[in-house]
Amino acid sequence: MKELRPFLRQLLRRRYQLLLGTLLLLVTLAMGIGLLGLSGWFITATALAGLTGAALDIFTPSAGIRFFALGRAISRYFERLVNHDAVLRLLADLRGWLFRRLSVLPLAELGRLRSSDLLNRITADIDALDNLYLRVIGPSLAAVATLALTALFLAAFAPSVAIAVCATLAAAGILVPAAAMRLGRPFGEREGRYLPKLRAAATETVDGLAELRAYAAVDRHGAKLAAEESALTNARRAAGRLTAVGEAAVGLAGHLALLVALVLGIGLYQQEAVSGPVLVLLALAALAAAEAVAPLPQAWQHLGRTRAAASRLLELGDEPIAVGSRQAPADNTLCLQQASFRHHRYAEPVLSAIDLEVTAGEAAIITGASGSGKSTLAELLAGLRRPQQGRVLLGGVEVSVLAEAERYARIGYLAQYSELFADTLADNLRLGAPGGRRPCSGRRWRWSIWRTSSPLCREVCRSGPARPVRVSRAARRDGLRWRAY
């Protein structure tokens, strides 16, 4: 399980909150055992007192039952509050970690990832990791502690019953989750494969709906989407059957522990080693202790899906980053030498043996029909893509070997579709050169910041003439003068 080690280290960052949540879960389980056991003892003792006419103090056990009932409800509430808060914070930390890793990937590498795959990793794969603590680690630790406390509690009345009951529940708590994990791993891996495919197919359907309608391919593509959904549904249905079998096995183990407690307790009752109310207490406490191991099979069954999600995230985060380190030359001449490019191995070439040279200070306009490769050519010049053949040079140096920060400080690129953030005009312009100097200073700078931070400028960035803002942001480089107003 080496793929889970980085995420276990993330858990250690919030270990105190997670330990508190596990302790509250243990208190909840202990309160449940005490409530059911004391209730059985009290009902049996009350019935025997009514039949024999003996005196019985009903106030003390009634207060104990109220204490366990309220304590169980309160501890359950705070356990859910603490654990879910911790898990949500962990998921936020993991998403921040993932975004930090994505932010340092070269754009050429990042562009190879499909948007649906990124969406799946950011959402489904990250969410799958909440199973690690919320359903595996925390409940498993609480189950071990609960069985230990149950053994001590039952041993105070009947050591033989304590040993038999805890051995039965411990065997069920180990064997059933282990079998569920082994049998459920293929289902988790299949679900991990099918869900990204389904999301990719759904995304492609929505994005290309106009083209699908134009070429009368909606039904054919819909059949493909239905096939992906059917595969995912079948995998989840098979996993659901395994979950039902695991829950049934644990439930059977709980009733087996109840039967063991009754059989051994009846023998002790006949020997007058325990009373009738204590016999019922032993049996119901054994049944309540089974609650500690009940969620374990499903949690360990889904551990395969959690491991698969962790592997995909690590593949993305630990992908080797091939970036250059050379400094840019003084010459700004940009040229292509016999550059050829195709989108994948079996596609037709978009560009073939292109030669182009743009010297410093020269303006060049590239025209062509839609789909002829103008955007691809611009992306090659900007270093966003690499040609399969030929070279892209800046001042005689290949763009691919330049340090990425140096490359994007020297080459400004305005794509056909570029985003503006719902922020001030000044902050949107600063993205063009985050480390650049202020365009002006003193009162003039403060006046420009006030003007570009106004609600009017925020509205411009949302819905106004945003094209000039994008052009200004792309043109803002060290050595170019610009104004924020």
From TrEMBL:
The chain crosses the membrane at residues 20-43, 49-70, 132-155, 161-180, 244-266, 278-297. It is a multi-pass membrane protein. Its main location: membrane. Keywords: Membrane, Transmembrane, Transmembrane helix. It is found in: Cell membrane. InterPro entries: ABC1_TM_dom, ABC1_TM_sf, ABC_transporter-like_ATP-bd, P-loop_NTPase, Type_1_exporter. PANTHER family: ATP-BINDING CASSETTE SUB-FAMILY B MEMBER 10, MITOCHONDRIAL, ATP-DEPENDENT PERMEASE MDL1, MITOCHONDRIAL. It holds the Pfam family ABC_tran. Residues 19-305 form the ABC transmembrane type-1 domain. The keyword Signal does not apply. GO terms for molecular function: ABC-type oligopeptide transporter activity; ATP binding; ATP hydrolysis activity. GO terms for cellular component: plasma membrane. It comes from the Bacteria. The lineage of its organism: Bacteria, Pseudomonadati, Pseudomonadota, Gammaproteobacteria, Chromatiales. This is ABC transmembrane type-1 domain-containing protein. It comes from Alkalilimnicola ehrlichii.
